[in-house]
Amino acid sequence: MKEMIFKRKRSLILILLFFVTINSVSGEFKAKNVFIVVGDQFRHDESFGDRTHQNVPHLWKDLVPKGSQIVTFYGNPSFMVLVHLATITGSWNDIRRLTPQDFPDKPTIFEYFRKHLGKKKESCYFITSKHEFNYMDFSNHPKYGEDYGAYVEFTREPNNDAELFQKLTAYMKKHHPSLVFVILGGAKSFNKIKRPAEVERYRKQLKEMDKTVYKIWQAIQADEVYKDKTDLFFLNDHGDLMDHEDCDDECKRYVVMVALGPDIKKGYVSENKYRQVNICPTVGAILGFPTPFVDKNAKVMTDILLK
Ligand SMILES: [Zn+2]
Description:
alpha/beta, Alkaline Phosphatase, subunit A, 8-stranded mixed sheet, 3-stranded mixed sheet, binds zinc ion
């Protein structure tokens, strides 16, 4: 008899433990907002891969120590042009298509966010200075689509990230969007061996990009709605360009990725092999929406999260 009571007690404890565990997995993250910032043509070998980090002083000294860095964040060397789509769909599927200007088939992060959390269009903001990226605000997916798309802005002048920053901060003040996707387009990379004269200009552009990312973080922390309630992810779209042949294979595959905010471990370095497709499900886990159509191997980057 005594033994039976003991067993029942034990199973009760086990059931309780089970619920506690479930809760802690799907429980609350602190951030109510996520910013994903992508530096287009942000070369690994001139930024995080350069031991001096002279072209990215803010990222290296001000942001990386506050967050987690993934030193084995890979791009996909087969696909260079449409990589941004992998970041917002969590899938390589749409990168393979023939007509680049088509809207993707896999739902975007904006659609997951808006449909599952019942959010208005203003809460979801996409801005870029790259005018050619005008097919990323929603997908062709029958369960999602245009009704769940992001509010989109382009700079008037192509590749002008100073203008982008002004527009972004004006929109932040006015609407306080919770999900923000930014593609910075102010840097143009060249083959260092064939066009050495262009490299100095590129380095200046990279320094500007570094400053812009830092200014975005400062704008977040200066706003009471965002301060300490916002996680930021910064990454680039690819390593150095395939046709550049001015760096080794490693610098084509390694991509930079740093994340910071209330849910991200501080001073942590991850050596897990992640790619752009891991961003979408990770943001979904933080903000609490499902991402059912991401690739099978697009897992949440749990080791960088404070849980
Ligand atoms: Zn690019």
